[in-house]
Design brief:
Chitinase A, domain 3, Thrombin, subunit H, 4-stranded antiparallel sheet, 1 helix, about 5% helix
Amino acid sequence: MLHVYRRAVKIEKGHRVTVKVDLSVVDGASLEKSTVEYIQGSGTMIPGLEAALAGLEKGAKREGVLEAKDAFGAPSMQPPLKKMKRSEFPADAKITAGEQFTAKGVNGGMDVVLKVEKITGDDVDVRLVHPLADKKIKYSVEVVQVTDPRPPPMPVSALELEEEQ
């Protein structure tokens, strides 16, 4: 009887990963409880969570707490600057570099924090900051599947090479 043994595929850069995720703010609200699929290293997963998943394989479970800087406060998660006009802020607002304002989310979505970076005349450069950027995030994950989307190397015998004489 022939047995085929498959080596478990570990999560590494470029692999397609499916995980069950349960995220919540430490001492706060639940954020997400779902099954998520992503490509490791693509930048679509929370940086600290991606780092915690690296090297795991199907069936692995892990839980812990991500520091704010490794979750939604990670510099890689911050979008570029956006130019706004002074008139877009409340008339009585004192606008200085470092000041933060909250803007209502689109279609009832999560509010957005605007952090003033620089003021030049009537132009105000702001960075959109995730509202959870200063929060620690509790996570619980289970790896459902890990696949390597790259094709395996072709066996030499399949190349049908002719030997030189």
